[in-house]
Amino acid sequence: MGSRYGSFWPLAANDEHHATHRSHWGSQRGVNMAQSLTGASAGEVRDDNFLGLKLVWCPPGKFVMGSPPEEAGRKDHEVQAAVTLTRGFWLGKYEVTQSQYTRVMGKNTSHFCATGAGRESVQGLDTSDFPVERVSWLEAMEFCRRLTDQERLTGRLPAKWQYTLPTEAQWEYACRAGTTTAFHYGPELRDFQANFAWGFRKLAPGVFEYAGKTAAVGSFDPNPWGLCDMHGNVDEWCRDWRADIATGGLDPESTVESRWRVRRGGNWDDSSIFCRSAVRYGARPTLRFRFAGFRIARCVV
Predict the structure, then answer these.
(1) Tell me: the pLDDT tens digits for 148-158?
(2) Does the domain formed by 38-300 have CATH 3.90.1150.10?
(3) pTM of this prediction?
């Protein structure tokens, strides 16, 4: 008969017991891992991934997506809709940085870096903590896929969880963080609150500099859940195809193919009305822009 460790050795009764125990243990371990990825409260922060990328817990909840008719700068496609998100998710506290992107993808495609076309505007600056930009939707999703694969290899990520881009509904829910105004700061966006056109970068208390480019992530105050740069800096890719009007309901996601993928949040070159919580952009998934980057979500998909 074959080796004790060969594939043809029959299981004795005791072996069957241990095999069943191991199978149960493995199954229970998967359940425990999934439970351990559930946050306790809104704003909880973890960095349990090989990049040390900080993630913020966004609990299940309800909100109204879109903007009211009286909101300044409102567009017709920002029709309000009630949304219920039945599962919580983790969202990057910051936009993915140039250094993080390079570690995963092996390259830095950014305009605002030492080797980019905008290198003169960042001469002498360390841009490693600037958001990566000139990243297509396809490249952002590839970053997420590679991060998912790496984290599963280490055993930190259960099979049903993955790193991906947030849905449009998840993005706006997280951006608002319980607020209902045009910006999570209030009805207006001021120069010292975000990096947007005619905006300023805070160098020190009371000292500001005209931006005209991306800023290091976290340069401005966060929203109520601790998420930074949800307004301005770089547009952020979302997972959805862009529909004419965002739909509400339970865990909405536009999966009907169209020309564009969704971008949210506005960027360093936008005026404030294009950085509102409800603003919806779109672009072809193959295109790169010096205005567009992304932040990742960790969720059950």
Answers:
(1) 999 999 999 99
(2) no
(3) 0.87
